[in-house]
């Protein structure tokens, strides 16, 4: 493959070598005796400055945004960069324009608002700051792979098409086929949905392989038009056999985030400002607090003047309470454990108090909930009882209950919103700026 700018930065050519660089024009300045072309190619945040003498070598079609190949001599830089490419007349045409730009090209030199960039999904990732978030996303995925691999977890591919509502919240998108006759049809005559969480299938695989994880798209038809909700998002889920204590899960989640944040600190994303790097440091080395739901409710009630709604025991914690707990009160990640049974899905293990379940949400500053996890009820009778209490249809869940009929073992797991983590560690104001083509309430652009 042709060398990209990242390859060149990591392993610079010899001074005096003639090289070719492919890229897109980030900026172009033409003066009387010289022209400067800054090239980017998406491989890193960095660019390469090409110094063109005489400026008449610049083809007409070359403009900000054009795709080009430039040949020149690698030399020591005179400005802010250590190296630059000297482009001269010596060996014939030096600049080939693969594709020019039309006059109305929307990305000009000035900085654009995220909102404007979202309105041009086909171009927005060309902006280096936006591209950095996708490069970071790719890296994070590798770090998670390493983390789980080192701990004998197997990455599996549970389905995104399912017949069950894992969370029981009724926020499913149903699948219909485009019928030739004009009226939509079900999934081969059966009801099927896009998954809200792959947990139930992951539990099947956990009962076979011991420790499994996945990173898959999940879909939620909730009308939450906020800066941290997507209708299609990627959930990282892990399921672990032979654990029976919630702190095993919270400690594991903490170790995972510390690992990822440390890896991020060592991976050279120098373009992020210090205030964002402080977030990485907080996840890597800061304190993770653990409190119960009851304690969280007490704290919120003791500080009631700060909130628009004041929950009593049994109510859910709102986003304002979550952000306050992590962002202002503890100023760091907080595990909130043991929520009331009624607030959580049917599969969670009940605590001996008969009122709460062995579960946790991990809250982080600015975002609120990042992870939700629990021990799973592995006793067939208790699980059947809970399904009956909730008046759920047990028929579609028989395959899941079979796990409890044969070789049932204590186990637990969690799900983490991948884009929410990315939003936090990249500093993106809106979760829509962390996923290439965001699907949100009322919005599916291209
Ligand atoms: O808390 P949730 O709903 O948990 C589950 O679905 C469990 N079955 C996971 C498991 O135990 N395997 O979702 C998990 C996480 C949330 O903490 C949040 O970070 C993210 O998924 N999430 C969303 N992210 C973006 N947009 C949305 N609409 C999200 N809904 C949940
Ligand atoms: Mg949750």
From TrEMBL:
Domain of life assignment: Eukaryota
SUPFAM superfamilies: Class II aaRS and biotin synthetases, Nucleic acid-binding proteins
Signal peptide, first to last residue: none
Record InterPro entries: Aa-tRNA-synt_II, aa-tRNA-synth_II, aa-tRNA-synth_II/BPL/LPL, Asn-tRNA-ligase, Asp/Asn-tRNA-synth_IIb, NA-bd_OB-fold, NA-bd_OB_tRNA
Keywords from the UniProt entry: Aminoacyl-tRNA synthetase, ATP-binding, Ligase, Nucleotide-binding, Protein biosynthesis
Statement: the UniProt record of this protein carries the keyword Electron transport: no
EC number assigned by the record: 6.1.1.22
Domain Aminoacyl-transfer RNA synthetases class-II family profile: 134-436
One of the Pfam families matching this protein, by short name: tRNA-synt_2
Similarity comment: Belongs to the class-II aminoacyl-tRNA synthetase family.
Name of this protein: asparagine--tRNA ligase
């Amino acid at each position: 493959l042709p060398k990209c700018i990242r390859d060149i930065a990591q392993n610079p050519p010899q001074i005096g070598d003639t090289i070719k660089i492919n890229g897109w024009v980030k900026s172009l300045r033409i003066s009387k005796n010289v022209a400067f072309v800054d090239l980017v190619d998406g491989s890193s945040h960095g660019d390469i400055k090409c110094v063109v003498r005489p400026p008449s070598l610049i083809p007409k079609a070359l403009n900000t945004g054009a795709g080009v190949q430039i040949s020149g001599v690698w030399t020591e830089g005179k400005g802010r960069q250590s190296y630059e490419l000297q482009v001269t007349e010596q060996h014939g045409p030096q600049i080939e324009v693969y594709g020019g730009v039309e006059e109305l090209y929307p990305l000009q030199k000035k900085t654009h608002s995220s909102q404007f960039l979202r309105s041009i999904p086909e171009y927005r990732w060309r902006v280096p700051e936006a591209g950095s978030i996708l490069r970071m996303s790719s890296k994070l995925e590798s770090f998670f792979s390493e983390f789980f691999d080192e701990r004998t977890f197997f990455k599996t591919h549970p389905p995104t098409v399912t017949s069950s509502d894992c969370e029981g919240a009724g926020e499913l998108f149903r699948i219909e086929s485009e019928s030739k006759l004009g009226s939509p049809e079900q999934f081969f005559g059966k009801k099927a949905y896009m998954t809200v969480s792959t947990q139930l299938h992951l539990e099947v695989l956990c009962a076979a392989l011991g420790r499994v994880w996945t990173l898959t798209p999940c879909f939620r038809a909730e009308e939450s038009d906020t800066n941290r909700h997507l209708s299609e998002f990627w959930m990282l889920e892990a399921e672990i056999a032979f654990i029976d204590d919630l702190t095993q899960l919270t400690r594991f989640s903490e170790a995972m985030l510390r690992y990822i944040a440390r890896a991020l600190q060592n991976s050279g994303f120098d373009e992020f400002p210090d205030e964002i790097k402080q977030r990485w440091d907080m996840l890597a080395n800061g304190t993770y607090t653990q409190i119960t739901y009851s304690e969280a409710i007490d704290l919120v009630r003791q500080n009631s003047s700060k909130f628009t709604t004041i929950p009593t025991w049994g109510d859910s914690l709102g986003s304002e309470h979550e952000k306050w707990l992590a962002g202002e009160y503890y100023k760091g990640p907080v595990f909130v454990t043991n929520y009331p049974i009624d607030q959580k899905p049917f599969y969670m293990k009940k605590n001996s108090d008969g009122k709460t379940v062995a579960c946790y949400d991990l809250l982080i500053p600015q975002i609120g909930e990042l992870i939700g996890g629990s021990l799973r009820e592995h006793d067939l009778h208790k699980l059947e009882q809970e399904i009956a209490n909730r008046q759920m249809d047990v028929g579609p869940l028989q395959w899941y209950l079979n796990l409890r009929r044969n070789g049932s073992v204590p186990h637990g797991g969690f799900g983490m919103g991948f884009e929410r983590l990315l939003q936090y560690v990249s500093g993106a104001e809106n979760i829509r700026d962390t996923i290439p083509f965001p699907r949100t309430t009322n919005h599916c652009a291209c």
